[in-house]
Design a protein that fits this description.
Layout: H1 2-9, H2 12-22, H3 25-28, E1 37-39, E2 52-61, E3 64-73, H4 82-100, E4 109-116, H5 136-142, E5 152-155, H6 161-166, H7 171-182, H8 189-193, H9 197-205, H10 209-223, H11 228-236, H12 240-286, H13 291-299, H14 302-311, H15 318-321
Parallel strand pairs: 3-4, 4-5
Antiparallel strand pairs: 1-2, 2-3
Length: 323
């Protein structure tokens, strides 16, 4: 998911269409979205990159430089602390800006947008104030001293197909948002996409459309559960270019699967070798080993084996070594 989001929304024309569709009209009227430019990098916590993907853009706002920060949440469950996390990410954006512009004493406006695609509508706070553990009367007393931050939410769970069709989006963005809503775990995805063949063809017709189409197919193959023959039939109706892209995607995924299998085999081989070496050291120091110890060693991770191997030198007992 992260790859297709960054691939499709990372194109400035696609991102501009999404921003025109979801940002408030008064703001869109002041943003020069035709001059949108992507900034490289990510500001998401490393431990949360499996859950969040982000994109940052610069854009003129009423004659001044501004930034737009877009984040998509990939998990089926929403993040109840998203308002706080977005505030943290925006501070990182400003830190990055200051490192790139030493000596400035003004910060650019950063417009925060979260794209959410859980099957259930968003129910958590969108502003930091609502996360604070305070009684209402106390909040009123200290409100002016508390951070006032709220992100813009694009809740795809509340977006039906008719509303999605009505959005002024590029075809790649429309299909991406559709897939975010319906693709994961969907065995009937090929049938559902029959209603969207015009948009699928439009993806191919855009500059760089084949690469974007392949990215979308890759996502469909990875998260969907549609039978391969049904999906192949659907793509074939879009023309030879689409079918070639389908074949290319299938070959690419098979190659990645083989490479992953080789890498896994190598890793397992290394682990088995370390387990065998540790068993030999334990036998030399403590004598014959119980079967339970042998089973524990052979089931251990590479990191655990390294720790135990290092402790053999200093431990006085078998139990101490494997503690």
């Amino acid at each position: 998911m992260m790859r297709v989001f960054r691939r499709i929304l990372g194109e400035t024309a696609n991102a501009a269409s999404q921003l025109r569709a979801v940002l408030p009209d008064a703001l869109v009227g002041r943003l020069e979205l035709d001059r949108l430019s992507r900034v490289s990098g990510s500001f998401v916590d490393t431990s949360l990159r499996w859950r969040h993907s982000d994109l940052l853009f610069t854009v003129p706002l009423a004659g001044r430089e501004a930034l737009v920060y877009v984040l998509v949440e990939h998990q089926s469950s929403e993040d109840p602390l998203m308002a706080f996390r977005m505030l943290r990410y925006l501070v990182r954006v400003w830190d990055h800006y200051l490192s790139e512009h030493p000596g400035v004493n003004r910060l650019p406006a950063v417009i925060p947008l979260v794209v959410h695609h859980n099957r259930r509508p968003w129910a958590s706070p969108t502003q930091v104030m609502d996360l604070l553990d305070l009684d209402p009367d106390v909040t009123d007393a200290v409100r002016e001293y508390l951070p006032r931050f709220e992100f813009i939410l694009d809740d795809l769970a509340c977006l039906d197909e008719q509303a999605l069709r009505a959005r002024p989006l590029t075809a790649p963005v429309r299909v991406t948002l559709l897939l975010l809503k319906i693709a994961a775990g969907n065995p009937g995805l090929a049938d559902d996409l029959q209603r969207w063949t015009d948009d699928l063809r439009a993806v191919l017709d855009q500059p760089g459309g084949v690469e974007q189409f392949v990215a979308l197919l890759r996502y469909i193959e990875l998260v969907g559960e549609a039978p391969a023959d049904e999906l192949h039939h659907l793509v074939a109706t879009l023309g030879p270019e689409a079918e070639e892209a389908y074949v290319t995607t299938a070959e690419m995924l098979r190659a990645e699967g083989r490479a992953e299998g080789v890498a896994r085999g190598r890793a397992e081989g290394v682990t088995r070798g370390r387990a065998g070496a540790l068993v030999q050291l334990l036998i030399l120091k403590f004598g014959p080993l119980p079967q339970a110890v042998l089973d524990t060693v052979h089931a251990a991770s590479t990191d655990q084996l390294e720790t135990w191997t290092a402790s053999v030198l200093t431990a006085d007992t078998l139990e101490e070594t494997l503690s």
